Amino acid sequence: MSANVAAVSTYVAAEDLSMFGRDPWWLIALKAVFCFAFLMVTVLISIVMERKVVAWMQLRIGPNRHGPWGMLQSLADGVKLMLKEDVVVKRADKAVYVLAPIVAAIPAFMAFAVIPFGPAGNEISVFGHRTTMQLTDLPIAMLYILAVASVGIYGIVLAGWSSGSTYPLLGGLRSCAQMISYEIAMGAAFASVFLYSGSMSTSAIVEQQTDRWFVVLLPVSFIIYIVTMVGETNRAPFDMPESEGDLVGGFNTEYSSIKFAMFMLAEYVNMVTVSAVAVTLFLGGWRAPWPVSTFWEGANHGWWPMLWFVLKLQLLLFFFVWLRGTLPRVRYDQLMKLGWKVLIPVSLVWLMLVATVRALRNENYDFADIALYIGAAVLGLLLLSFVADMFRARKAKQAPPAKAPAEFDPMAGGFPVPPLPGQELPPVPRRRPRRERELIVSGGPDTQSDGPLGGSTDGKEASDG
């Protein structure tokens, strides 16, 4: 009974958000401007870093003209895009066409409002006022992030629909299907963190990682989230909505100038936001890494937590760049198969496993007993799978031989069509071996077999005729 009371008191203390909402209006505005500026500067650095890292991977020089070592290249690209001609497609739905880039960009900034840069209890002084290193926090902060991220995807969908063109429409539809496929697994990965931490507040989730980060306790949730965050941001190798190989440019094909720049900005801001969420949920948030936190007591006080947060964030942004420079783009069917047949089932099974472990821990079961129960359950599942495979193999041996596939004529309809599943193309006629063909000399006689049907094309006979 005392253990349950202690658990409840800990949960209530974790949900104590009284330190938020006490700042004056000018300090709230200043913190909001800081979040906006932090995102913009991080985006500018990320664009230059991506181009330089990919160039280094491909043994190229990369940007080296604008600014020292080419560090102002992304700023020059932004100025160039703003000065380009702003073309509006004639068949576009004007209102939605103009609104779509705004819908894609603004939610990416909104999600950063609940990301903690430092501990809630460690207040810093800003112009004589004590405040937390976080704009605000909510009891359902992670649900707020999920909702805002979902709204941002609609900007891409609306851009493809309103352009009045085929390629942008296909890119928008792909983005919609990709969002549905990967957001389910992402929500299940979030739910595992909620169960283990007992809270949906971002500051409370970071506080629960005092002894051990959730990447160690929930490794499957971390891997699932890493894959889904790449799919949610439409980045390589999951950049199907804008694949230039088959959709020219995808949903942004008909956009130019500042509206195209807003789509590019939204993509990179989403990268920063999902990376910040990964740091908050699984990598200890603003906490110092393990070797530093053991011998330095002040590592998690003052302005130092912001440094650890930024370093972890940059590592995840490098991971995005590394993926783009390493992996080729997957096919669309592989993208959907990974989302629906792998990520969603694995995330649901893992969620049930985490819920079972938490329920047993709440009942004061020993860790060895929990491991024994889980091991027995996994062993039982493997045994059932082995028995099912045995019966399936025996049934396949007893089944009658399959009938030969029907002959397929690819030109039956008057134009070439690909074969359906189970159909095979007829064998391609091979040319005769080289030793059976005569070398046709220019102006000399041709062979009878190589000539047209119904007569010889011998030059001598033709002249005699």
From TrEMBL:
Transmembrane segments: 25-49, 96-118, 138-161, 182-206, 212-231, 268-286, 306-326, 338-358, 370-388
Keyword Cell inner membrane in record: no
E.C. no: 7.1.1.-
Biased composition regions of type Pro residues, renumbered to the chain: 416-428
Keywords per UniProt: Cell membrane, Membrane, NAD, Quinone, Translocase, Transmembrane, Transmembrane helix, Ubiquinone
Primary location class: membrane
Region (Disordered): 402-465
Location in the cell: Cell membrane; Membrane
PROSITE patterns: COMPLEX1_ND1_1, COMPLEX1_ND1_2
Family statement: Belongs to the complex I subunit 1 family.
Complexes and interactors: NDH-1 is composed of 14 different subunits. Subunits NuoA, H, J, K, L, M, N constitute the membrane sector of the complex.
Physiological role: NDH-1 shuttles electrons from NADH, via FMN and iron-sulfur (Fe-S) centers, to quinones in the respiratory chain. The immediate electron acceptor for the enzyme in this species is believed to be ubiquinone. Couples the redox reaction to proton translocation (for every two electrons transferred, four hydrogen ions are translocated across the cytoplasmic membrane), and thus conserves the redox energy in a proton gradient. This subunit may bind ubiquinone.
NCBIfam families the UniProt entry points to: PRK06076.1-2, PRK06076.1-4
The protein's name: NADH-quinone oxidoreductase subunit H
Species this protein is from: Streptomyces thermocarboxydovorans
